[in-house]
Amino acid sequence: MPAPFPTDWSRALVVAAHPDDIEYGVAAAVAVWTAAGKEVHYLLATRGEAGIAGVPPAEAGPLREQEERRSAAVVGVPEVEFLDHRDGTLVEGPALRADLAAAIRRHRPELVVTLHGGDTWTTPEVTPAAWNSADHRALSRSVLDAVADAGNEWIFPDLPGEPWSGTQYVAVQTIGEPPHVVDVADGVEAAVASLTEHRRYLEVLDPGTPVEEQARHQIDQATLTEDGGRRVGFRLFWG
């Protein structure tokens, strides 16, 4: 049986590669947390400028940034920060780690949350598998390293801000049977509304299906359990 997600924290930073990544499930947990009085902020490595077919990056980047800010506000997140790495070319390594560590120092979270960074979107026994994107794979591992980097004064000695070692947990979204879960029954409607804010992205992704219908289907897939419950799963690491 999975364990309940810890509640002994007050401030969280959710880190993702692209606009809309958080909205495919994790936003339901965010809605529950902010409703309970937790402070949550978002950090995006890119602006998702390569993510809309037929829309040039110079147009798509600002558009997707606006959609993400509206989406975050729906679930009670007041701030979205963008690091301006190039969409589609994130590289696991010191440059990304340093930018993430600097952001962690700025936000000083007790909980850092990031998205699934495994090789595939399916459990190991499922084949053929759906390959996860290069950006997702690079970001997840870099976040785990950056939490430690943020507290070390010598790894990146020119990094601005005071070292921060106050992160208690790093939570990585999981697929399959997660070790820890958040009951998100009370956050489902907010999560659907949050994903719906990515209207232009979803209209291009599936022009034949209304955006609201797409959003509800995706949130159902991400949260609905076999017994009719609603949950989002994570694997926890010590900060």
TrEMBL record:
InterPro entries given in the database record: GlcNAc_PI_deacetylase-related, LmbE-like_dom_sf
Molecular function terms, GO-annotated: hydrolase activity, acting on carbon-nitrogen (but not peptide) bonds, in linear amides
GO biological process: glycoside metabolic process
Keywords: Zinc
Keyword ATP-binding among record annotations: no
Name of this chain's protein: N-acetylglucosaminyl deacetylase, LmbE family
Species assigned in the record: Klenkia taihuensis
